Amino acid sequence: MRTRPFLLAAGLLASVLTPLTLAAPAAHAATAAAPYDFNGDGYRDLAIGAPGATVGGKAKAGAVSVVYGSSTGLKTTKYQTFSQNSTGIPGTAETGDAFGTAVTSADLNTDGYADLVVGAPGEDTPGDVDNGTVVIIWGGSSGLSGARTLINYSNMGDTYRYGQALAAGDFDGDGDDDVAVGGTGLFSIWIVEGTFTKSGDFAGGRGSGLSYGPKPFSTTYGVEYLSAGDINGEGRDSLVLHGRAKGTDDALTAVADTGIDNFADWLEYVPGGYVSAVGDVDKDGYADLVIGNQREPAADPSGALGGKVTLVHGAPKAEWVDARSTSAFTQATNGVPGTAESGDGFGKSVALGDINGDGYADLAVGAAYESFSGAEDTGTVTILYGNAPNFSASGAVSLSQSTPGVPGTAESNDRFGGRVLLSDVTKDGKADLTVAAPNENGGDGAIWSFRGASPSTATSFGPSTTAVSTSGAPAFGTTLGG
């Protein structure tokens, strides 16, 4: 049985699904802002999800903090924190909304300021529990302000937990960024097409079920994680979909060429994992894909002892079919710091960015359950440097709260490396490392910021720094975007 996409035209949507008023598209800026540059100053800013945050007395309503970049790194005195109780944000903070479960960014209305997209998959809508919602918060010269709800074209009981995964990119090659939204249920992936405006009709969208085909996805887990990039060198972004195999909880990962309307019929399956990142590791002009799988082979056939990451090389589309070049890395790989031990969770998180400015994307890998010094699940982060054709173990670095210069103390259940990010917050042309430990201090969570990946530059802050309540377990840093 072939998977059929659900395609919707903008005019039909306006009249049937949402009574919105047409508005003229916003004028395009000469140059669109880079993702996560919310105030247009050229520095990448950091979005931090705390989906467990208590807001207005409502447990796990969720919040997102934005800390702004500067020439000296993240400027914790310059931040904004948003919840569904914030002025201008649609909705109301309610128990279990989990606002901040996923974030992504692009200059959606091409005004020269990046916008922030936030998922709240636990949002209840009339007649539907956990239907989910997604909000766009608009960038501007003074930062983020004003918002609108991203349309849910399947607001008819076919999709649940809408917004549990997000990615932005130009998926149809028309030059405008689109937003991909993952959820559960019959239609588990949706693309809302650009251009976007602050009011008026959306441009249209398409969705698909992934539960049929040679390797069907589970509708229960749905699409749990998304990443995007021009892996095929076609001038448009492919979409990387993470879910579970139907009937199991084994990782299932596929690359979708979303330039095809019925893209779900033509998925390219790659090694299974739960997270991924896209960047040019070997400097050949094609974006490469890194997939993280933290599980043991007894629990997931795609896993490895202690966890692993897999590098899948980008290439012209014809070369991808049955001929993907891949390399796997574990803590047993020669030169990779540490030892592969059961339960380390190597690959729990991954990020790509050019730390040393040599043009090759480097890799940060979180091993959130790594244990040492008598403490359990303290966590580490490993840095592997990009090279041709693969990552080089030469100069590989391991970081933890036991590393000299890194603030804090390695304690049981901190899960340092639960999320990692590489982005240029200092505007020097090199990526800087951000590490989250969402379970730090009993579930409060905390963030570490490095210039490059140098431990001597590390600073740390927790949820109180950005006015996120520590009531309950906010899990500050469950999601990072930058």
From TrEMBL:
<dbReference type="Pfam" id="PF01839">
    <property type="entry name" value="FG-GAP"/>
</dbReference>
<protein>
    <recommendedName>
        <fullName>Integrin-like protein</fullName>
    </recommendedName>
</protein>
<keyword id="KW-0732">Signal</keyword>
<dbReference type="InterPro" id="IPR013519">
    <property type="entry name" value="Int_alpha_beta-p"/>
</dbReference>
<feature type="signal peptide">
    <location>
        <begin position="1"/>
        <end position="29"/>
    </location>
</feature>
<keyword id="KW-0378">Hydrolase</keyword>
<dbReference type="InterPro" id="IPR013517">
    <property type="entry name" value="FG-GAP"/>
</dbReference>
<keyword id="KW-0325">Glycoprotein</keyword>
<keyword id="KW-0677">Repeat</keyword>
<dbReference type="InterPro" id="IPR028994">
    <property type="entry name" value="Integrin_alpha_N"/>
</dbReference>
<dbReference type="InterPro" id="IPR000413">
    <property type="entry name" value="Integrin_alpha"/>
</dbReference>
